[in-house]
Structures are given as C-alpha cells and as structure tokens.
Amino acid sequence: MTQKVLDYDHNVVPQETYWDCGPASTQVVLNSRGIIASEQDLIRQIGTTEDGTGDVDWIVGVLNQYVGGGYETNHMPNDPPEQDEKDALWNAIVDSIDEGFGMVANIVAPPSNYPRGVLGSESPAYAGGTVYHYIALMGYDSDAHAIWVADSGFRPYGYWIDFEQLATLIPPKGYIYHTGGTQHPMADTFFADVSEFQTYYDGSYPDPVLSIRSNDGTYRDHKFDTNYPRMRADLDSGKLKYGIVYAYWRPNWEDTANTMIDMINSYGGLHPRVALMIDVESGGNPGGNQSGGINAMYDKLAQFAGNPARVFGYANSGDFFSMWQNRPSGLRVIGAGYGSNPNLPGQIAHQYTDGTFGADQGLPMGRPPFGNCDMNVADGLDPDQFGQALGLAPASPPPNIINQFADASPWIGKRITNGENVCPDGIGRWVEFENAHVYWTPTTGAHGIPRNIFDKWATQKWETGPLGYPTDNVANLPDGNCQAFQGGAIYQRNGQQAVIVHGAIGNTWIHQGFEKGPMGWPTSDEYDFGNGSVAQNFEHGTLVWNPNSVITITYQGGGTTTVPDVSVKK
User: Looking at the predicted structure, is the pLDDT value of residue 393 above 50?
Assistant: First the structure.
C-alpha cells in the first residue's frame, strides 16, 4: 500500500474563529514545512474578514510569500466535475504531497454530501446547513484512493475522505497545489513596485523592502501622499528596512526631477534609508539615445540625495541599450524581463513580472495588500546586502516598546509572532504572545490584551472598530477582569461572557460605581430597545438610553428612575 501523510502539529489545526478556516488551513500547510505563522497574521495577510475568505486566489500569494513560490490555483467550475478535472486533482495531490507540500481546498458541502470518514476514521461533525469551508489536504492513500484532510472547523479535525467524494465537494470552487517549481533561497530579497494603480500601502505588506512611485514627468502620483508617510513610519519602526522612490523619466528631465524632489520634501523629506530610482522606458518618450537627459536627471538626484550611490536606474534590455547608451560609471540597475533575466550591466535586481506575465517562473505574482503587481527579486542578496547595493546604511534597531512591555510582563508568555505587525492605519503595531496580544501606538503606549478580552475585541474588528486601541493594561478584579479602550471598555466576570460597556450607558454605570454600584456587573452588550432607544442588562437591572438623552434605570427588585445622560455637556 502506498500511503503518505505529511507531518504537522495537530494542535494548530482548530481554527480560532468561526470565519477563518482559510487562514487556519494555510497555517497547517505552512506548519508542515516547518514555518510558524500565527492565525492572526494570516488573517490580515490574506484579507479574511467575518465574511470569510473569498477565493483560493486570496491565499496563493501568501503561501508563495512564505515558501518562496511554486503554488498555483486551479478552479473546478463543473459540478459534477468532469473526469479530466478529477484526474488533474488527483495528480496535483499526489505530486504536491510527494514534494512535501500540503494543499488548500475550498469546498461546498450540502447536508446530503457532508464529508464521510473512510479507512476507519471518524466523520467530521458538520452541521447547520450547507457548509462553505476551506480544508488542508495533507496526505493520500493510493490503494484506497483516499485523501487525508486536516479540517480546522470540525472535530475530530483530521480524517480520511474518499477521493471521489472530495472531487464532488470542491466544485464550483478551487484548490491550491504546488507545481514543483524551484524555491528561491532565503537570501533572495523580494519586493513590490507600486503606484496609484494599486491600493494604498498598509501594514499587511510582508517584505522588508518596498518601491513606490512619486511621479511620471510632472504628473504626481495620487497615492504618494499616503504611501510615502507610511513608508517613512515603517522605516522608523523597523517594519521596513529599505525603501525606493521612483520617477518615470521624461524629456523635461529637470521638471521631472524637481517634481520628485518637491514631493519627497513635502512629505517629510528624504529618509536616510530611501534610495531614488529613474524609470527609463520608451513608452510615451521619443526614440533614440536619451543619455544626455537621463544622466542630467541622475546628477540632479545625486546632488539631492547627497550620494550618487543612492540613485539607480530601471529598464528593460531594449530601452536600456537604446535610450541609455552612455551611462554613469558604476551605475546600478533593476533589469525588467518577464520570463527571462536580462542580466544588465550593473544589475542588482530583476523585475520578473508585472503581475500578469511571467507566471510560469513559479515566483509570487504579487504581495498583500496590492494583489498582483510588479514584483522584483534581488537574487542572492539578503535585505541588508541589497540595501548596501542601493547605497544605504543598515538600519539601527529602534527601541522596541513592545519588547520592553514583554520583558516586564511575564504573564503574556512566549512570543509567537516573528517581528511586529503593522496595523491597517499604518501607525499601530501588534505582536501575538502565548497568553495575550500586545498593541502599541505612539499615543496610547503598549498594552497586553489577554485572550478572553481579545476574542471579544475581535468581534468589533479590533482597533479599526468602535472601541479603537487599548489605553490601559488589563485590570484584575476580585471576580473578573476588564480593560479600557479608546471607545469604551470590555468586562468579563469569571465564568461569564465578555461584554462591552461604552457611551452614555457606560458613563451612567461608571458614575454609579462600576461593578460595585447598585447595578453590579454588566451581563449583556447593548441592544436595540425600540423607538431609537438602546438598552443594556446588568446583574441587578437594566439601563435604557433614549434619544432625549435620558437614562432610565430599572432595578430587578422593582422600581424605576430616570437620570440625565451624564455624557451630554450642558
């Protein structure tokens, strides 16, 4: 019998929320490769929300980001699938597992076709109507024609399934498989090259180097005013190691250079770990040798940067040799070639795709949050070596407030996240630990959020929701705990669910003496009370706010009174 199952930590399989089966399945696949990634990191990198993970295409780029390429997607639109689709699925599973790579599949399981365990394995406890779900395919049995599934959503979290049934569960969705493409060694530095044609840069971007456009001639990129300040902040925090700002060369080279310089100066100035790139392309430019104008722009930018080593070029082979025939001594360039490496003189990196062409190389076609985009790789150079090739000095590590908090707070346990994650606003930072998540901003400081409070906060969309960032450390009370946030507080009494207290009702409760006052502990979140009113239940009664800014207090033992909304300023 030929049976092969990849090794993975079975303790990581169960998903942390009801909606993140996609990231959870991805976590299992990475774990089998010896790559430790937290579910919360993967949620943000993939873009999963409470509505789930939209498609396997959301996941494939993140997998490639971690393993160095080789994963691709395949959709199965026909339901039931045709024989050639089933053959392709079986071959993809066997080939991927034999190479040591797990797979992720998106399935649709109506009650009449819930997965059934075979080979003596227990069937998973699916329930509740049609289940839209992601699973990890981690092994196969060629004699029994069965597949081993790591299922994050349903006990027993692992089982053998008949291949024929699996093939009926995937349509009309798809799966992610490994092509066997060669993985680049970890020394290679990947980075994206983006402009206003992509979404804004944010903290989900995973690489230590980023390239952003400032201008095309005198045309100013509409997203530079957000992208560059965020880049500067992440360079200061250590999230990014090095940055590149580039301008598309035009014959009015002086105006082009002045526009670039003005834009950089308008948003904080030239950061000491940012290099400048001249994008030399024939599109929209006159033909023939343009070396005079290109070199004049090079000299002006070198003067602005204070060092010609911080200025370099970009071109494909044809434009490089036709437009820039006479080049400065020691010039370094990024060579563009989709499907082949141009290996230009002075080349320090290779742009291998524009997000569309060059997909056959088995390399990532994009990065979060941009999706498919221009992607580059500095072959054989780690980030600091690439930074030196850009004429930039290695970064001095900034004081790490989160690390300082962790050193002083042994209760949070061991660190899980490598490095720090940047929040979507580009300002906050967060790290997952064994017993807590630590969040930091310059104004609120660093605070650990224990898991019981964090899970409730997550239902409000973390710091992007109405509660905002934590403003204080967790307070341990005689029979529970609580934590303050910018927009309210979360309380949890021992053995009960966590609840949110905020706004006018929260202020009234605070003025009564918190949980030691006559109302006692909160027992529910706020809820609609009709006619525009909002109510919240407490241990000894109910508080109701109405649109006239009056709070009605109803006590369990009987009696009602009204008080003005203390949050309304007279």
Answer: yes
